[in-house]
Amino acid sequence: MNARRPRLPFLRVALWLALPVALAWALKGVRLADVGATLGRLGAGPIAVLAVVNLGVVAAFAGRWWALLAADGYRVPYGELTLYRLAAFAISYFTPGTQFGGEPLQAYLLQRRHAVPLPTAAASVILDRVLEMTFNFAFLAIGMVVVLRLGVYPPGTGLLLAAAAVVLLLAPVFYFAAVRFGRRPGSWLLGHAPSVLAGRPWMVRLRGFVVTAEDEVHRLTRDRPLGIVAGLAASVLSWAAVLAEWWLATAYLGFPLSAAYLIAVVTATRVAFLVPVPGALGALEASLVLALTALGYRAEQALALALLIRVRDVAFGALGLWIGGALAGAPNGR
Predict the structure, then answer these.
(1) How distant, in Å, are the alpha carbons of 1, 79, 92, 175, 332 from that of 287?
(2) pLDDT tens for residues 229-248?
(3) Is 306 inside any structural domain?
(4) pTM of the predicted model, to two decimals?
(5) Residue 92 counted as domain residue
(6) Which domain holds residue 293?
(7) 154, 156, 157, 160 alpha-carbon torsion, rounded to 10°
(8) Residue 285 CB-half CA count within 13 A
């Protein structure tokens, strides 16, 4: 019997085929000399400042994970967790998906180098991701409200954006309240999935992920609620660092964005990173061109910013791959 060859879902194939179209649209009518002139505003000083700020952003994103582990009694050095997060980012960035994939490495390094029991290590990583997604949804909701106020959305989509914003704002609140009082909405929903999906390997893995996550959320919200609060506070700080970094990048490129414009542009890029392709290739560039030209900026400025973001992510991804390989093969840290 011939082995059944895995097939990509139709939607993913369609998205991958659409990427060249998105890139061509983003580059339409753009003078590369103008893109180069915009990037030419960056000297050695601004590049050094952006590199330091980017390192700060990476470190800020480790704060939530550190707070959750500390609430559970594990004092892992903050700097080492930052390196683990960077290694996980590299795997997620260079593989197809929606910014997931490096979590097993995080749990493995935590167990191997700090003797944290593997179930606890995995649970901390899962809960970190749950809180990250919760706050990301909240930011997207705020971003949609800002887009509505700016009036830079396609005709006929205003009501849809408003409804999506309300759902994204309220869903995390109701979800955490339900899990706190012993409900398992995610597990229940996946348990009632259609039979055609229930037996799929990815569905089995997803169900196990959600069950573990909801058990941990329930335990921490009941026994150590301050850990959840600290994790959410760390999320606020990390997003403040992200917005500061983006504003600084646009300022160095010669078009500093107002607070509302900044939130709208970052919202567009976060939606682009939901596209299941490595590094949102094509989607990021197209989203920046669409968002910034709708706000009155030139496509050359948008592509210069996209190139800067792309170089930054690839550089940090390459560094993360090197760090992950070095740490995974190094002697135990404890």
Answers:
(1) 45, 33, 20, 30, 43
(2) 888 888 899 999 999 999 99
(3) yes
(4) 0.80
(5) yes
(6) 44-329
(7) 180
(8) 22
